[in-house]
Amino acid sequence: MHHTRFRRLRSLIGWLGLTGGVLVCLLGLAAFAAPGSWAADNMSFFLRQFLAAGLAGLLGGLLGLTVPHRRPVLYKSFLRLYALLFAVLAGATVWRTVEHTRPVAAARPGETSLRIVATNLESLFLETRTLTDFLTKSEADVMVFEETSWWLQKRHWKNLGRPIGAVGEPPFPEHLFVGPLGDISVYSRFPILESKSIIVEEKPGQPRQDIREILVLKLDVEGRPVNLVAVHPSSPRSEVQWIRRQTYLERLEAVLKDLQSQSDTETIVIGDWNLSPWSAYFSNLFGGLNLHTAFSGGYPQTTRFFFDYRLHWVLGAVVDHVAVTPGLRFAQVRLGPDIGSDHLPLMADIVLPGGRKDKPAN
């Protein structure tokens, strides 16, 4: 009796694994098959979770092979179909991961490198101890913050009797540029030669509710100009916000093309893109502009987590990215610790060939 129940349980696990696995594979494949759909494109944020669930379902399906079934041919055919779907999903995900990724390589003698840190503060005060401790340890040359809420930052500094911006006071470098919307701010150890903010509004006919900015700076890095573009489009939580993000990305593409047409100055693009590395829009944007990226540990890891940092591997998405033009390369890319925001800091050491100093890795 006990043996019969155990066999039925394994059969049930097998069928549930196959059914659930096929479902998650189809959800994941929707991101590749129908990227023009808001719902399908948003599935690209969760491909890691779908693959993990799909693998669990595949193991359950294989477990089901250890017991006889009333319709063994149907079961095995279903399992083969599932294995094919899983293989296609895994292959497509891997391809998108490596498509625009460059390997990291340490700076060689005679090359300049700069260290840049970017994170979404979620309105966290810039002089919060956990944040300043991290920034001090990071020894960053350039710091980019999104969701700065500059008006709120100024209120904190005034209440504390502190100078606005704490510019030049460790760990903050001596040069600062804040966008007029107060959403994005940039500190730099290197002089800022040029700076401007590009306001991205909705297209005609769209509700004017979520205006965003793109910051474009030119830095003097050891006597060499480098463009820095800081980004933070809308989060595509609804179809309207997804359309707003698309409008922002279209404007970003135009800005970067304009920079490329004006001069051969290399460009770094960094921030909270609210865009999955497996999205077709990520692939098209990077491919069209010949941008490259790299990931901490060599593969995409959670940069934005939900509810609790301890669950970031399960309940999280990869939305913060750094990209460079072909003349630059990555010496190191890594993620920082939990600083009290719902994002993890993104850190990158970027090499400019033919410079004068090397940045030692921490």
From TrEMBL:
Domain Endonuclease/exonuclease/phosphatase: 128-343
The keyword Membrane appears for this protein: yes
Gene3D superfamilies named among the record's database cross-references: Endonuclease/exonuclease/phosphatase
Keyword Transmembrane helix among UniProt keywords: yes
SUPFAM superfamilies xref list: DNase I-like (SSF56219)
InterPro entries in alphabetical order: Endo/exonu/phosph_ase_sf, Endo/exonuclease/phosphatase
Protein name: Endonuclease/exonuclease/phosphatase family protein
